[in-house]
Amino acid sequence: MADEGGVPFWMSGQYASMAAVPMATGWSLVAMPYVYSGNADKSKSFQHGTSINAGLSARESLVLMQLGYVAEEKILGGQPYLGVGWGPGANTTTASVSVINPSTQLNRSNTSNGSTDIYPLASLTWNQGNNNFKTYVTGDIPVGTYSPTSLAAIGIGHAAMDAGGGYTYLNNTTGLEFSGVLGATYNWMNTQTNYQNGIDSHLDWSVSQFVSQNWQVGIAGYGYYQLTADSGSGDRVGAFKSRIAAVGPQIGYLFNLGKNQAYINLRAYKEFWAQNRVEGYATIATISIPLGK
After folding, report:
1. Residue 238 burial class via C-beta count within 10 angstroms: exposed 0-12, middle 13-18, buried 19 and up
2. Confidence band of 92 (pLDDT split at 50, 70, 90)
3. Strands 26-39 and 279-292, sheet pairing
4. Contacts of 29 by beta carbon, 8 Å cutoff, 6+ apart
5. CA 118, 119, 122, 125: dihedral to nearest 10 degrees?
6. Secondary structure of 141-190 in the HEC alphabet?
7. Shortest CA distance to 198 belongs to which of 162, 217, 226?
8. Total-model pTM
9. pLDDT at position 1, please?
10. How crowded is the C-beta side of 242, counted as CA atoms within 13 Å?
11. How many other β-carbons are positioned within 10 Å of the β-carbon of residue 269?
């Protein structure tokens, strides 16, 4: 979590093993359950809407579902993918001290139940032996559950665009795999709060080893670093540049559904190196299911 209220567009850790490996042609459904718990001490202040909050803690769970299609016709030699993501979720955020001029509220807590914003995604992937490459562009259509007067939200309240690239090394002989996806986010103004997040950069990575034809084990991590300062007439906390890093174990399983190959990956992260955001633990699963042509 970073930027306004400690919440960025990019969900760190959404990419891990096999990130740049081309998918089978046709329709697919990717489900991504996500659970997060984190906090920040009382010396850190976070702005959300018109309130300034300290001693923040957050618990969030959601299931992001992405329906997509891989075309057989290649573009620039790469395999094209178009998809859209959305999902239900819940968020509970608590502040030890919340200042809403001219009043101060202690142990303020809000819970939001609803849905995420809508996330369109387009990508191209290329395969050259053990090497796989990816480029993508995605964004945020701000229709999710969000209120500038509530501490807790599931949507982010503003539009965003994110672009980047990735690489996967996958050796089918030795079973060694490593992946990395690097990107940057541009955030538009939140017109409900007149607050604009700065430009953010992020890296998701993983290293794994297939121990059998179907099972893999390894580690995964992410880094997040805000490149430019927050701004806008509603910004009352200044630059508020944020950063975070995380690492943890992962396990993956490949299996067949009919003639098509499906994939499940489960990973858990412990965060560190936090600045201007909560720090905690995240658990993410990726369940990729082919639906056929």
Report:
1. exposed
2. very high
3. antiparallel
4. 65, 66, 67, 68, 288, 289, 291
5. -140
6. ECCCCCCCCCCCCCCCCCCEEEEEEEEEEECCCCCEEEEEEEEEEEECCE
7. 226
8. 0.94
9. 36
10. 30
11. 25
